[in-house]
Design a protein that fits this description.
Layout: E1 13-19, E2 22-27, E3 32-36, H1 41-44, H2 48-52, E4 55-57, E5 62-65, E6 70-73, H3 74-79, H4 87-98, H5 112-122, H6 131-152, E7 156-159, E8 162-165, H7 167-174, H8 182-187, H9 189-193, E9 198-202, E10 205-209, H10 221-236, H11 245-265, H12 267-275
Antiparallel strand pairs: 1-2, 2-3, 4-5, 5-6, 7-8, 9-10
């Protein structure tokens, strides 16, 4: 087949429409397929006028939006393949696009809220909900419940109007009942072997403070709680994006093991964790 001809059996796009948060494409075989707008970051950042200005390319083998320089192939739509544009490329495009607009809109449109929701989801669309996602969601829920249980038991102190958890007191009071034996150290080994980095600000720039494995005599319950808290902070406050899946899962599972041993040994914490 020559490069200028199309196999008659090949399914191509014949029409395009956008409804709500979905891209809908009518195909030459009579079907209509749809894909989430969130799969295509440039579409989520486009105005209604920009979205409506599309044309078919390659006699229906793809769709082109000239104002936002976006191309989507019909074969990718059929295969359910989202945009593969890198975050760096998207950032550069957004910066160039924002240079052509004012920083704030002069008036609100009815589509703003819907578009805003799409923008929140677009950065997640290229990541599969795999083991790292499941582990992180579970860990954040467990940690939140654990922290609330500690508050109910009075492990809190006040700093101005802030309420802080007394992690150090928890470790000190529990240490006599939790020996750091071989079995426990095996469960938390990733925290020791590859401690989670700490995000810091230096001269106005965010940086990661990397730490190597600590001396053996420094690994105690207080240190393990500190590392577990750091894993939580890196996840919750946006420090870990995108995921380094394999390493993150190891650290998350190790942090969960630290919390689990406290709940297993402390009857009061076990009851509070179950109730709240």
């Amino acid at each position: 087949m020559s490069s200028s001809s199309i196999d008659r059996a090949e399914t191509v796009a014949v029409s395009v429409s956008i409804s709500g948060d979905s891209l809908q494409v009518d195909l030459s075989d009579g079907r209509t397929i749809s894909a989430p707008i969130a799969w295509y970051p440039r579409l989520t950042h486009a105005s209604a006028n920009e979205l409506s200005n599309w044309r078919l390319i390659g006699r229906g083998q793809g769709i082109h939006w000239p104002e936002i320089d976006e191309d989507i192939s019909t074969s990718d739509l059929l295969a359910g393949v989202p945009s593969s544009e890198s975050q760096r490329s998207l950032k550069q495009w957004l910066e160039a696009k924002s240079g052509r607009r004012d920083k704030y809109k002069t008036e609100k449109t009815d589509q703003d809220l819907e578009q805003g929701r799409n923008l929140l989801l677009q950065s997640l669309s290229s990541y599969e909900l795999g083991e790292a996602w499941v582990a992180s969601a579970r860990f954040l829920m467990v940690f939140s419940r654990f922290e609330y249980a500690l508050k109910s038991l009075g492990y809190v102190r006040q700093q101005g109007e802030r309420v802080l958890i007394e992690w150090r007191r928890l470790a000190a009071e529990t240490s006599p009942y939790i020996p750091l034996d071989h079995a426990l150290l095996q469960e938390v080994a990733p925290l020791v072997a590859e401690p989670p980095a700490k995000q810091v600000v230096r001269q106005g720039h965010l940086e990661w403070l990397l730490e190597g494995p600590p001396p053996t005599d420094e690994v105690d319950l207080e240190w393990l709680l500190e590392m577990t808290y750091r894993v939580r902070n890196n996840l919750f406050h946006g420090g870990k994006w995108p995921f380094d899946s394999a390493r993150d899962v190891r650290l998350i599972n190790a942090g969960e093991a630290v919390l689990a041993i406290f709940v297993a040994v402390r009857n009061d914490l076990h009851l509070a964790f179950s109730e709240y």
